[in-house]
Amino acid sequence: MKNRTKQIRAIPALLATLALLALAGCGNVGSSSGSGPSAGEDSGGGGPTITVGSKNFTEQYVLGELYAQALEANGFNVETKLDLGSAAIADKALQNGQIDIYPEYTGTALVEVFKQAELPDTPDATYQEAKKAYADRDPANTMLEPAQFNNTYGIFVRREVAEEYNLQTLADLAEASGDITFVSFSEFLKRSDGVPNMQKNYEGLEFGDVKVVNSIGGPIYQGVLQGEGDAGVGFTTDSQLASDELVVMEDQKNIWPFYYPAPVVRSDVLEENPKMEEALNSVSESLDAETMRQLNAQVDLEQEDPEDVAKEYLEEQGIVK
Question: Which is the CATH superfamily of the domain at 153-248?
Answer without folding.
Answer: Osmoprotection protein (prox); domain 2 (3.40.190.120)
